[in-house]
Amino acid sequence: MEEEIDIVETGLLSALRLAGDAPWGSLTLSAIATEAGLSLSDFYGLTRDDLANAFDLHFDRAMSAEGPAGGDSPRERLFDVIMLRFEAMEDYRAGAISLMRDRDRTPRLLLRLPQHRAASAHWALASAGLDDDSGAPLGLKVAAIAFVIDRTERAWRKDTNGDFALTMAALDKSLRAAEERMLRLQKYIPKKTESGPQEPDDAEETHEPTRPRHEPP
Predict the structure, then answer these.
(1) Could you give the CA distance from residue 56 to residue 148 in angstroms, rounded to a whole number?
(2) Diameter over CA atoms, the chain
(3) Is residue 207 part of a domain?
(4) Distances (CA, A) of 171 to 13, 67, 114
(5) Per the domain annotation, does 81 fall within a domain?
(6) Which residues have C-beta within 8 Å of that of residue 191, sequence separation ≥ 6?
(7) b/e map of 29-48 (b: 16 or more CB within 10 Å)?
(8) What is the pLDDT of residue 205?
(9) Mean pLDDT of 139-164
(10) What is the pLDDT of residue 125?
(11) Greater pLDDT, 135 or 212
């Protein structure tokens, strides 16, 4: 199983390098294998779609690459871990955008996108230490952060100056909007009754946090 995962990851990165100079849909497994320094038989049973569907999983791992996030607030921690994802994608910008454009017009890939977004959101929350039901049910938080990642990716695709200004602005704005929605929804979410003193939920913080490691504009 580990060997298969390595082949998919190697194939994905090789395909992204090739897609920097050619449309994703024009790539062949033979060309990808050559770029990867492997034989075509190593990719037996795989398709280009399998590589495309591994894209989000590969770059999601960057969100936990630096260990538990250390920000003072949930929004700060999420900002930092999600930015790690887009920083990792930057090295493959041209190929990633080529893949995304092909995905946008390929129904069989587009139909998988909500599943990938939910997985990315769950890992962002886990990387930020927020994958619990405090503040709001985990499923609700996953849906909110999936939308945040989607909006931020749209900005990243236009962010060609290399300074992440558009990306950080979109991420900060989307996280603030998600935080405000969660605070409004809290009064409709039944509180769990537990014995002992109650600590305030992270989502109830209203103070302005210190600036995160990645400074939004």
Answers:
(1) 15
(2) 63
(3) no
(4) 25, 21, 19
(5) yes
(6) none
(7) beebbebbeeeeebbeebeb
(8) 46
(9) 95
(10) 96
(11) 135
User: 99 and 5: one domain?
Assistant: no
Scored b (16 or more CB within 10 A) or e, 158-185 reads ebeeeebebbbebbbebbeebbeebeee
pLDDT at 213: 59
* 30: amino acid identity, one letter: S
Whole-Å CA distances, 116 to 97, 149, 165, 217: 16, 11, 25, 28
Tell me what pLDDT residue 203 has.
43
- Supply angle C-alpha 56, 16, 90, rounded to 5: 70
Structural domains of the chain, count: 2
What global pTM score does this model have?
0.82
- C-alpha 201/C-alpha 97 separation (Å) is 38
Confidence at residue 211, expressed as pLDDT on a 0 to 100 scale: 47
Place of tokens 């038989």: 41
Instruction: Give residue for tokens 């504009």.
Output: 217
- For residues 2 and 128, give the distance between their C-alpha atoms in angstroms, rounded to a whole number: 27
The rounded mean pLDDT for the chain is 87
SS3 136: coil
More confident residue, 183 or 116: 116
Which range of residues forms the domain containing residue 32? 1-53
DSSP assignment of 145-160: HHHHHHHHHHHHHH--
Residues 40 and 141 in one domain: no
